[in-house]
Amino acid sequence: MSSETPHPLRSANSPRLKGRVKVPGDKSISHRALMFGAMALGETVITGLLEGEDVINTAKAMAALGVRLERWNDDASWHVNGVGLGGFQPPAQTIDFGNSGTGARLAMGLLATSPLSARMSGDASLRSRPMGRIVTPLEGFGTRFDTSDGGRMPLTLHGAQHPVPIEYRLPVASAQVKSAVLLAGLNAPGATTVIEPEPTRDHTERMLQGFGADIDIGQADDGARTITVTGHTELQAQVVEVPGDPSSAAFALVAAIISDDSEVTVENMLLNETRTGLIVTLEEMGGDITVANERVSGGEPVADVTARSSGLSGIVVPAARAPSMIDEYPVLAVAAAFADGTTRLQGLHELRVKESDRLAAVAAGLKANGVAHDTGDDWLEVTGGRVAGGGTVITHLDHRIAMAFLVMGLASDEPVTVDDGNVMATSFPGFREFMEGLGARFEDAG
Ligand code: S3P
Questions:
Q1: 327 noted as active-site residue
Q2: How many domains, the chain?
Q3: What is the DSSP string of 315-357?
Q4: Which of 233, 255, 271 is where one domain is finished?
Q5: Cβ atoms 118, 111 nearer than 8 A
Q6: In this predicted structure, what is the pLDDT of residue 38?
Q7: Is residue 341 part of a domain?
């Protein structure tokens, strides 16, 4: 699987990466800002929105539901005129979420308790991803789904006419599932509770609080987190400043660590502790990272994060850390390929159902570039040191596979090629130019 006109891209050994940069806005917060703004009363103003393909598809989805959105070109701010609870219009056509699991799954929650039907689809990657994890809890509200084989997209959602609130214990550590249930609860009468045994990113809870939802966070008897929304409280429009995406910053930070004589600072990066697993892990491996100018912006902790060339050592990364770095494993595997000794990554079952089977895609990329490794169902061991490179990596419509292996090529002996650089526009438009600005060497490869 690759984009319609695949664009192979190659990166080559690039010492002396230097710079102070900002990365595009956080993808998770960007989707939520558009959706919560769409559901609120009044005009939500968003600055720093990620204008990658995934988020643009969410903006188009909101427009298809009757929401008026406008981008002001002078300051790149987005203005969303919300329709209020129950105010969405039935979409005239199939809504296309492209590559975005977050867009599709959160939108299912958003629409589950509205009395309308909506047909939803996406690209080949999204159509292959499991939707049962969303469909099952939403059916509890009274929502009905006509899905394709295996509970997949394309699917038609029929919103509940008379929704009933639910209590739901998450069977997988997934912020998307948590968020879909909470969003459905906003338009159901009474209390909807999600019980979360393993903490996942908490942007939905934080932002819903900011938008004035009736939301309570507590603890179950067994210590699990509980999040309860009481429905039928209107959200109020907000000003949202989207901080830099740590999952995008990860590529520049790892590049600085593995390349000789390098120092890169990413300014205004989100430092929410449900997202900092990679920073913790790189520090444990011996990565030279400093965090400065810590502050709170738009209800989220942010900081300027600097990474410098460092010798890394292999470690065991605990499974419990997985939710706080779930999107960073491809680039962590690349860092591990340059570390002395063996790094063991475990608790990786969810990587199998991301934009690609990321465990398989990472293993294939390591193999193509001569990196010793071993994998099991939900673990990966990488034995690092020097990386030969010289391989071609299949991206399978997965932006993070493309960026991670282009980072590998910046420090390997021979260049690394990815079969399709176009897929990076999903989350990081301009990634090539951004990295070239730091001194990275890329070339078209076909
Ligand atoms: C996201 C949650 C994670 C993550 C995805 C964004 C979100 O997915 O991988 O990129 O914004 O809620 P899961 O909830 O499936 O773990």
A1: yes
A2: 2
A3: -EEPGGGGGGGGGGHHHHHHHHHTSBEEEEEE--GGGGGSSS-
A4: 233
A5: yes
A6: 98
A7: yes
d(CA 374, CA 37): 45
C-alpha–C-alpha distance, residues 363 and 431, integer Å: 23
Cis geometry, peptide bond prior to residue 154 (ω within 30 degrees of 0): yes
Kindly name the residue from 123, 245, 327, 420 that is annotated as catalytic. Answer: 327
Whether 2 shows a pLDDT value over 80: the answer reads: no
CB-neighbour burial class of residue 219 (10 A; exposed 0-12, middle 13-18, buried 19+): exposed
Structure tokens at 293: 């100018």
Average pLDDT, the chain: 98
Tell me: do 227 and 277 sit in the same domain.
no
CATH number at residue 384: 3.65.10.10
Query: Which domain-ending residue is among 201, 233, 265?
Result: 233
DSSP 175: H
As a whole number of angstroms, the distance between CA 1 and CA 361 comes to 12
Q: Is 30 in the pocket of ligand 1 (CB under 6 A)?
A: no
pLDDT of residue 3: 77
Q: Select from 135, 93, 98 the least CA-distant residue to 117.
A: 93
Which residue spans within 124-179 are E strands per DSSP?
144-148, 152-158, 167-169
pLDDT value of residue 189: 97
- Given a cut of 70, is residue 390 above it in pLDDT? yes
Domain that holds residue 277: 9-25+243-444
Instruction: Please give the average per-residue pLDDT across 49-77, as a whole number.
Output: 98
Ligand 1 pocket: which of 270, 326, 357, 358 to mutate (most atoms within 8 A of CB): 326
This prediction has a pTM of 0.98
